[in-house]
Each structure stands twice: as structure tokens, then as C-alpha cells.
Design brief:
It is a single chain. The protein is α+β, with helices and mostly antiparallel strands. The chain has 2 domains: 113 residues, Beta-Lactamase; 77 residues, PAS domain (Beta-Lactamase, 2-Layer Sandwich), CATH 3.30.450.20. Helix content is 32%, strand content 26%. It has 8 helices and 9 strands. The strands form 3 sheets. It has a 5-stranded antiparallel β-sheet. Strands 6-7 form a two-stranded antiparallel ribbon. Strand 8 and strand 9 form a beta hairpin. The longest helix has 15 residues. The radius of gyration is 18 Å and the shape is globular. The N and C termini lie far apart (37 Å).
Length: 220
């Protein structure tokens, strides 16, 4: 099986998030266009089926993160971190996620790298692509919540359920203000950002501590 031929991987080539997929032997079985741009490498075919350590232009912190995950192999399912790295003489804030997937009884590890400073306009395009492929939407390692202009939730993916400890039936159709997850100040900030998007402006990245359904505090 050549994993890159799968429809799932074809969609990954259309998004701005950088993606690389390794098998348990630490060989590169897929790398998307955004990742090629990130490492400034043009010949993708020369990387496929090669050991991951061939990528000498990856920042050390990211390389160490991927190496540590690969040492765990089968024992993990999903992990995500934010890293501040130096990359080609620029300091970047990178969100990196890893998830285990299984196809045809083979185990692979997907890594997603995203520059936190990426303009929000990219997300609008990405979400449209994600939703066309139901599998990709559901398996995407970051939480995706689709709302209307008034904040009523139209759809969300499985990662959202895991992060907040809720089922889709508890979320879809409700306004995010009704979920008992956010403070009044956070809801007010959400409303401001949604209004910006509706008016055609870019929203800003927000980090906040919120409640899960079980009462535990988490950062999003």
C-alpha cells in the first residue's frame, strides 16, 4: 500500500497546516505541500520512505518532540503542545499535534504543525475543505466548532468532544453561552470576535482557561 494515494492524504495537500506522517519504523510515508515549504525542500519524492532524521532543516525542538512521540509508538493516541522555535533565523510560535491512526491494520503517526501567527483568513478556506471530507473533519487533531453569526453551534468534531468532555448531542443546536464552559467575560470576547468575522475583518488568536464538563480547568 502507498499511503499517499488515499483520498484522506490528498485533502491534506490543500491546507496551510504543515503535515508529516511517519510509520512505526520512523520512515516518512507522507508529507504535504505546506510542510515542504516549511522545511524549504522541493523534491517530495526523494523524502518518501526515507528515515525521518533526513530532515535536517526542522527546528531542534520540533525534531525532539517528534522523536519522543515516535519512541512511544503504539502507547499514545493524541498529544498537542505549543513551542517557541528559531527557524531560518526567525522566532516562530508553533502549535504541534500528534495523533495515531490505523489504516489497513498498519499504524501511522500524523504530525500537524501550525504557525500560531497564521492569518485567520486561512482558517476559513481550511474549514471548507475539512468539512467536505467527513473523515478528515472528525479526525482533525484540533477542535473545530462551526457556528452561525449568533453563536449557535451547527457542527463540531470528535476532538471537541474529547477536549470539553461533552457529546455532540450536548453541543449542536445550542449557543456556546449555554454550555456552562465559559465566563461572561469570555463569552463577551467571543461575541466581539464573531462580529469581526461577520463584518469581514480578521479575528485574533485568544488563549483562555475554561471549564470542562467534569469541572476540570483546561487551556484552549
Amino acid at each position: 500500500m502507498h499511503i499517499v494515494e488515499d483520498m484522506h492524504w490528498q485533502f491534506l495537500d490543500k491546507i496551510s497546516v504543515s503535515v508529516i506522517v511517519l510509520n512505526l519504523s520512523k520512515q516518512i510515508v507522507y508529507i504535504n505541500k505546506s510542510m515542504m515549504e516549511f522545511i524549504k525542500y522541493k523534491q517530495r519524492d526523494k523524502l518518501l520512505n526515507k528515515p525521518f532524521n533526513i530532515l535536517n532543516s526542522i527546528p531542534l525542538k520540533i525534531y525532539s518532540f517528534i522523536t519522543e512521540i515516535m519512541e512511544d509508538g503504539k502507547t499514545f493516541n493524541f498529544v498537542s503542545e505549543k513551542l517557541r522555535v528559531s527557524h531560518f533565523n526567525k522566532i516562530q510560535e508553533i502549535s504541534i499535534s500528534a495523533r495515531k491512526i490505523t489504516q489497513n491494520k498498519e499504524i501511522y503517526i500524523e504530525f500537524y504543525l501550525e504557525n500560531i501567527k497564521t492569518p485567520q483568513t486561512n482558517y476559513k478556506t481550511n474549514l471548507g475543505i475539512l468539512r467536505k471530507d467527513g473523515f478528515f473533519f472528525e479526525s482533525f487533531p484540533n477542535s473545530i466548532v462551526l457556528t452561525d453569526k449568533d453563536g449557535y453551534i451547527i457542527d463540531c468534531n470528535q476532538t471537541t468532544e474529547k477536549i470539553f468532555g461533552l457529546n455532540q448531542r450536548d453541543i449542536i443546536g445550542k449557543n456556546y453561552a449555554e454550555l456552562d464552559l465559559f465566563t461572561s467575560e469570555q463569552i463577551s470576547e467571543f461575541n466581539k470576535q464573531i462580529k469581526k468575522i461577520v463584518n469581514g475583518s480578521n479575528s485574533k488568536l485568544i488563549e483562555m482557561e475554561v471549564n470542562r464538563k467534569d469541572g476540570k480547568k483546561i487551556w484552549i
